[in-house]
Amino acid sequence: MASTTGASLKFTSLSSSFKQTQVPLRGVSNVNSVSFPSLRMRPGSLRFRVSCAAKPETVNKVCEIVRKQLALPDDSSVTGESKFSTLGADSLDTVEIVMGLEEEFGISVEEESAQSISTVQDAADLIEKLMDKNCA
Amino acid sequence: MMEKGVQRWVVDISTWDPSTDDFSYALSLLPQHHHSSITRFVKKDDRKRALISWLLQYALVHEVLGIPYHEIVIKRTLEGKPFLECGRVCLDFPNFNFNVSHHGDYVAIASEPLCLVGLDIVSHVIPEKETVLEFIQNFSSCFSSLEWDQIVTAGSNDEVLTELYRYWCLKEAYVKATGSGLAYGLHKVEFYHTSWTDISVKVDGVRNAQWRFWLSELGKGHYVSIARGHPISATESYKRTLNQTKFNEEEYNEGLLLPNVSFVWRTVEELFLVIHKAKSSC
Question: Which ranges carry the Carrier domain (chain A) (predicted)?
Answer without folding.
Answer: 56-131
